[in-house]
Amino acid sequence: MIGEGGFGKVYLVADKKRKKLAALKLVSCSDERNAELALEEALMLSGYSHPNIVALLGEPFLIAIGVDALFVAVPLEFAALGDLTCFLRMVRAGSLESHFGHAVLTSMKSRSQLLLSLSCLHSPLVLFILLFYR
Fold first, then answer.
1. Are residues 113 and 56 part of one domain?
2. What is the pTM (predicted TM-score) of this model?
3. Partners of 23 in the β-ladder
4. Sheet holding 61-65, edge to edge
5. How many beta carbons lie within 10 A of that of residue 87, not counting itself?
6. 56 with 81: CB under 8 angstroms?
7. Residues 7 and 70 in one domain
8. What is the rounded CA–CA span in Å between residue 48 and residue 76?
9. Residues 22 and 56 in one domain
10. Where are the alpha helices (DSSP H) in 46-95?
11. CATH number, domain at 69?
12. Largest CB tally within 10 Å, which of 18, 60, 92, 129?
Protein backbone atom coordinates (compact mmCIF):
# COMPACT_ATOMS: atom_id res chain seq x y z
CA MET A 1 0.00 0.00 0.00
CA ILE A 2 1.40 3.42 -0.99
CA GLY A 3 -1.48 5.64 0.03
CA GLU A 4 -4.81 5.85 1.77
CA GLY A 5 -7.61 8.36 1.68
CA GLY A 6 -11.24 8.80 2.55
CA PHE A 7 -12.43 6.68 -0.36
CA GLY A 8 -10.00 3.79 -0.24
CA LYS A 9 -6.42 2.65 -0.63
CA VAL A 10 -3.80 2.90 -3.37
CA TYR A 11 -1.40 0.06 -4.13
CA LEU A 12 1.81 -0.03 -6.15
CA VAL A 13 1.50 -2.67 -8.89
CA ALA A 14 3.50 -3.86 -11.89
CA ASP A 15 1.97 -3.08 -15.27
CA LYS A 16 3.27 -6.03 -17.27
CA LYS A 17 1.83 -4.75 -20.55
CA ARG A 18 3.69 -1.41 -20.36
CA LYS A 19 6.61 -2.80 -18.31
CA LYS A 20 6.25 0.03 -15.79
CA LEU A 21 5.10 0.59 -12.26
CA ALA A 22 1.47 1.65 -11.89
CA ALA A 23 -0.96 2.48 -9.12
CA LEU A 24 -4.18 0.62 -8.41
CA LYS A 25 -6.73 2.61 -6.44
CA LEU A 26 -9.34 0.50 -4.66
CA VAL A 27 -12.41 2.59 -3.89
CA SER A 28 -14.48 1.04 -1.11
CA CYS A 29 -18.21 1.07 -1.93
CA SER A 30 -21.03 0.57 0.56
CA ASP A 31 -23.49 -0.76 -2.04
CA GLU A 32 -24.03 -1.30 -5.77
CA ARG A 33 -25.31 2.25 -6.34
CA ASN A 34 -22.14 3.74 -4.84
CA ALA A 35 -20.09 1.34 -6.98
CA GLU A 36 -21.89 2.59 -10.12
CA LEU A 37 -21.17 6.20 -9.16
CA ALA A 38 -17.51 5.41 -8.47
CA LEU A 39 -17.23 3.66 -11.86
CA GLU A 40 -18.79 6.66 -13.64
CA GLU A 41 -16.41 9.05 -11.89
CA ALA A 42 -13.39 6.92 -12.78
CA LEU A 43 -14.50 6.76 -16.41
CA MET A 44 -14.75 10.56 -16.50
CA LEU A 45 -11.04 10.65 -15.68
CA SER A 46 -10.31 8.87 -18.95
CA GLY A 47 -11.51 11.95 -20.84
CA TYR A 48 -8.85 14.18 -19.31
CA SER A 49 -5.32 14.59 -20.56
CA HIS A 50 -3.28 17.02 -18.51
CA PRO A 51 0.26 16.86 -17.09
CA ASN A 52 -1.07 17.46 -13.56
CA ILE A 53 -3.72 14.72 -13.65
CA VAL A 54 -2.66 11.10 -13.38
CA ALA A 55 -3.73 9.09 -16.41
CA LEU A 56 -6.17 6.21 -16.29
CA LEU A 57 -4.30 3.17 -17.60
CA GLY A 58 -7.27 0.96 -18.38
CA GLU A 59 -10.94 0.41 -17.70
CA PRO A 60 -11.96 0.59 -14.04
CA PHE A 61 -13.57 -2.63 -12.84
CA LEU A 62 -15.54 -4.06 -9.92
CA ILE A 63 -14.12 -6.42 -7.32
CA ALA A 64 -16.49 -8.22 -4.96
CA ILE A 65 -15.02 -10.05 -1.99
CA GLY A 66 -17.64 -12.19 -0.34
CA VAL A 67 -21.05 -10.60 0.00
CA ASP A 68 -20.07 -7.53 2.03
CA ALA A 69 -16.97 -6.07 0.37
CA LEU A 70 -17.36 -4.22 -2.93
CA PHE A 71 -14.57 -2.19 -4.54
CA VAL A 72 -14.01 -0.26 -7.73
CA ALA A 73 -10.47 -0.85 -8.95
CA VAL A 74 -8.97 2.07 -10.89
CA PRO A 75 -5.65 1.45 -12.69
CA LEU A 76 -3.67 4.69 -12.71
CA GLU A 77 -0.34 6.06 -13.80
CA PHE A 78 2.17 5.91 -10.93
CA ALA A 79 3.19 9.37 -9.68
CA ALA A 80 6.70 8.81 -8.38
CA LEU A 81 6.70 12.00 -6.28
CA GLY A 82 3.45 11.07 -4.57
CA ASP A 83 0.26 13.05 -4.22
CA LEU A 84 -0.18 16.80 -3.80
CA THR A 85 0.31 16.57 -0.03
CA CYS A 86 3.69 14.87 -0.48
CA PHE A 87 4.69 17.43 -3.11
CA LEU A 88 3.80 20.35 -0.83
CA ARG A 89 5.77 18.75 2.01
CA MET A 90 8.78 18.61 -0.31
CA VAL A 91 8.28 22.28 -1.22
CA ARG A 92 8.15 23.30 2.44
CA ALA A 93 11.21 21.18 3.27
CA GLY A 94 13.14 22.64 0.34
CA SER A 95 13.95 19.21 -1.09
CA LEU A 96 12.54 19.72 -4.59
CA GLU A 97 15.83 20.92 -6.05
CA SER A 98 17.40 17.47 -5.56
CA HIS A 99 14.56 15.93 -7.61
CA PHE A 100 14.21 18.51 -10.37
CA GLY A 101 17.38 20.59 -10.54
CA HIS A 102 17.72 24.32 -10.01
CA ALA A 103 16.54 25.51 -13.48
CA VAL A 104 13.31 23.51 -13.37
CA LEU A 105 12.65 24.53 -9.77
CA THR A 106 13.10 28.23 -10.67
CA SER A 107 10.61 27.80 -13.51
CA MET A 108 8.15 26.06 -11.18
CA LYS A 109 8.40 28.94 -8.67
CA SER A 110 7.74 31.46 -11.44
CA ARG A 111 4.68 29.53 -12.58
CA SER A 112 3.28 29.29 -9.07
CA GLN A 113 3.75 33.06 -8.63
CA LEU A 114 1.95 33.61 -11.93
CA LEU A 115 -0.94 31.38 -10.80
CA LEU A 116 -1.22 33.28 -7.53
CA SER A 117 -1.32 36.57 -9.45
CA LEU A 118 -4.01 35.26 -11.79
CA SER A 119 -6.11 33.99 -8.91
CA CYS A 120 -5.89 37.44 -7.31
CA LEU A 121 -6.92 39.12 -10.58
CA HIS A 122 -9.91 36.80 -10.86
CA SER A 123 -11.17 37.47 -7.35
CA PRO A 124 -14.77 38.81 -7.23
CA LEU A 125 -13.67 42.27 -6.03
CA VAL A 126 -11.14 42.80 -8.84
CA LEU A 127 -13.60 41.52 -11.46
CA PHE A 128 -16.27 43.88 -10.11
CA ILE A 129 -13.89 46.85 -10.27
CA LEU A 130 -12.77 45.97 -13.80
CA LEU A 131 -16.35 45.59 -15.04
CA PHE A 132 -17.69 48.65 -13.21
CA TYR A 133 -15.03 51.05 -14.47
CA ARG A 134 -14.85 49.75 -18.00
1. no
2. 0.65
3. 12, 76
4. 3-4, 8-15, 20-29, 69-77, 61-65
5. 14
6. no
7. yes
8. 13
9. yes
10. 84-93
11. 3.30.200.20
12. 60
For residues 81 and 13, what is the distance between their CA atoms, to the nearest angstrom? 16
* Per-residue confidence in pLDDT tens, the chain, 134 aa: 988 877 889 999 999 999 999 999 999 999 999 999 999 988 887 877 877 678 899 999 999 988 788 999 999 999 877 766 676 677 677 776 666 665 555 655 565 555 555 555 555 554 444 444 44
Q: In the chain, how many domains are there?
A: 2
pLDDT on residue 80: 79
Do 108 and 68 share a structural domain?
Answer: no
CB 72 within 8 A of CB 102: no
Distance CA 70, CA 31 (A): 7
Other residues' Cβ atoms within 10 Å of the Cβ of residue 31:
8
130/25 Cα distance (integer angstroms): 44
Are 13 and 76 contacting, i.e. CB atoms less than 8 angstroms apart? no
Range of the domain at 66: 3-77
Q: Are residues 36 and 68 in the same domain?
A: yes
